[in-house]
Amino acid sequence: LRYTRIEAAVPLSKLKEDFQRQSFCLSHFSYLVNPAHVMRVNPDTLILDAGESISVSRRYYSDFMACYVKSLK
User: Fold this and answer.
1) Based on the number of CB atoms within 10 Å of its own CB, is 71 exposed (0-12), middle (13-18) or buried (19 or more)?
2) Strand, helix or coil at 59?
3) What is the pLDDT of residue 21?
């Protein structure tokens, strides 16, 4: 596998800052995504290079897109 899924009993909000400093993007209240592995962005899902589909919530879509575009530079 080319991706790692981490399941933790710690709230994502506590992990979010550290991962965002490493260029991960929040796509949903339950998902931090490495934009380097995003192959396609749809209005409600991301398709990763491993073929997995990840949810994008309406609440986080704008912030995700800003983070994703920044990662492309």
Assistant:
1) middle
2) helix
3) 82
For residue 30, give every residue at least 6 positions away whose Cβ sits within 8 Å of its Cβ, in sequence order, or none: 12, 55
Asked if 17 contacts 26 with a C-beta cutoff of 8 angstroms, the reply is no
Encoding tokens for residue 56?
A: 């994008």
Q: Are 36 and 46 in contact (CB under 8 A)?
A: no
pLDDT in tens, 1-56: 456 777 778 777 778 888 888 889 999 988 889 999 999 999 999 999 989 999 99
Between CA 46 and CA 33 the distance in angstroms is: 9
Amino acid occupying residue 22: Q
pTM over 0.90: no
What the block records as the tokens of 73 is: 């530079």
Q: Pick from 66, 22, 5: which is nearest to 41 by CA? A: 66
